[in-house]
Amino acid sequence: xxxxxxxxxxxxxxxxxxxxxxxxxxxxxxxxxxxxxxxxxxxxxxxxxxxxxxxxxxxxxxxxxxxxxxxxxxxxxxxxxxxxxxxxxxxxxxxxxxxxxxxxxxxxxxxxxxxxxxxxxxxxxxxxxxxxxxxxxxxxxxxxxxxxxxxxxxxxxxxxxxxxxxxxxxxxxxxxxxxxxxxxxxxxxxxxxxxxxxxxxxxxxxxxxxxxxxxxxxxxxxxxxxxxxxxxxxxxxxxxxxxxxxxxxxxxxxxxxxxxxxxxxxxxxxxxxxxxxxxxxxxxxxxxxxxxxxxxxxxxxxxxxxxxxxxxxxxxxxxxxxxxxxxxxxxxxxxxxxxxxxxxxxxxxxxxxxxxxxxxxxxxxxxxxxxxxxxxxxxxxxxxxxxxxxxxxxxxxxxxxxxxxxxxxxxxxxxxxxxxxxxxxxxxxxxxxxxxxxxxxxxxxxxxxxxxxxxxxxxxxxxxxxxxxxxxxxxxxxxxxxxxxxxxxxxxxxxxxxxxxxxxxxxxxxxxxxxxxxxxxxxxxxxxxxxxxxxxxxxxxxxxxxxxxxxxxxxxxxxxxxxxxxxxxxxxxxxxxxxxxxxxxxxxxxxxxxxxxxxxxxxxxxxxxxxxxxxxxxxxxxxxxxxxxxxxxxxxxxxxxxxxxxxxxxxxxxxxxxxxxxxxxxxxxxxxxxxxxxxxxxxxxxxxxxxxxxxxxxxxxxxxxxxxxxxxxxxxxxxxxxxxxxxxxxxxxxxxxxxxxxxxxxxxxxxxxxxxxxxxxxxxxxxxxxxxxxxxxxxxxxxxxxxxxxxxx
Length: 793
Fold this sequence. Notes:
This protein is mainly β.
């Protein structure tokens, strides 16, 4: 199993003629068999190059090339460095690989998991299609180090190494998605995986090119809405899922000519309430039955239906030295919010339950997004390429109770980023990034738990790397200026002399932060096809407006949220003092990775240790909003229809996160692959106690079998009991999930068509996600079956 042959990259004629600076070559394996459709990413050139059926490739304008990155499915990733003493014939030998290696586009420097001092991974192609779910969190939940917030099957955001919300940045083509998902787990991530080409996950602090909001990591969704090439490509999928009677369809097409590229994609999804293995409400020793007026249907998760649709259209001018293009996208989504009122069969409401004490709550989202992207090579002695990215996002979602709108969330985000990729200097390659981002957020209505706010950010970052023998050194730094301004908060003042209560406005002082981050790491190729990576990052994060200024009921999480500028005192009486001082978060993160990336067996092991000063977290006070109103009527807490909510306040305290992640892959024979993985994260307060909603330990396995036109896999994930708990947090029982996927592929008319069948939760397990706010009332879906048809060319 260890004797699979080497792949050879044989560049038979390296021709740098003065009149025709063209590099011609061929890629083969050790047996001299050509490798078709291998991808070459060339430094200084925006378009990737593919080998033809004979393994041949041509690189034009090759006189200034310093690096060529080669990637082919089933083979180890390789970087070829060219120099002035290059021989006419260059031969590079690689082994077959049991692990998949794909370039990462999130940063301006070409990289893969093997070239990064910090752990990264990519989900793409058939793997992405196979694991795709209706939400981003559920799509990625089986990736090592990534869990899901799981706010029911309609909303789910990624948790990376125990961190989420304002610490994990979700980007679309490296630009902020500009939604409201970072202020609450009940808010949907406004992006779609069904039309994506790949999803990139950067673990640990990724602040150097993305800002302090990426202290926990980055999830970058890559699509072709702004095409960089006119090479004809296309894909579609249609399917049906039995667990919620969901129908879905999506398509994507890119084409054009030598001067212009056009892209269009779209999707549609409509499903009813999800089936669950038993009752939604988890029975406890204190409460074994529901109240008489709270009637729930066994085997159905009330108010969990959703429908969504969207499209993107874009075009690019293809120039000799790069491209420039624009796109427009629209996303619409209507879904129930599980755990909040009785739902309806189709999830879209007909007033049938209007008489219930608790009405169904729904979220109605609409987003318009413009993007401009350009990548241009230059003839400068110091500048290699200029990459420009600009986006404007107009986002709105309404929370609807019965037939009335309770709250409207609006967010307009403008972001501009210019990456200047530098020419090599003394062996150092790198880039400088300049960024501006403006976010105008407001919440209007009964559930406006955070006031309208305007956040502006300016930043400059630099990253450098250098190959020295078997070592790849990576250095980086970023400094930014963040200004946050919030509207006054309605407040009540109690005049003790007169006993009168007067309404007033509490003016909130503007806040300014100047966080900076530095990073240093090294990747050491200490043996053929083995390397280790060590990195240290000091990162600072400015708090978000919601962490600072929240004051009110958050219906989605069934809580009353209080921002960090307030201080909660419990002595003779309960009151709030809006004079609390707030600080930046400061983290020191150590990462170490060990990798084997070629041969029949490959593996990656990551370990991390992250200390955070002034860590913002929501502390459960033990009080309810009713108690606040009864005990402190003079301090701004109004009567509200959604009373008796638990009160959470954003506190700051030193915290520590540490854990391990591992993935192991064995190519048993050309048709059979076995993968094993596992991860564990611990999050605790340095002064004692644990942080809430930290995911449990997990191990998983996947067996994949491919034969002729058939492909099948079985996946098993086991989640351990979570008994390491925060104050007032309850334990969560472990569970095991078994899923399977079978596909048959048939080429016809220039396309590959695949009929697929997928089964999830085969054992019909009643499973609860510990990291979810709704774990005691919203279980994972029951056994479900999907069938559909995929096509691509």
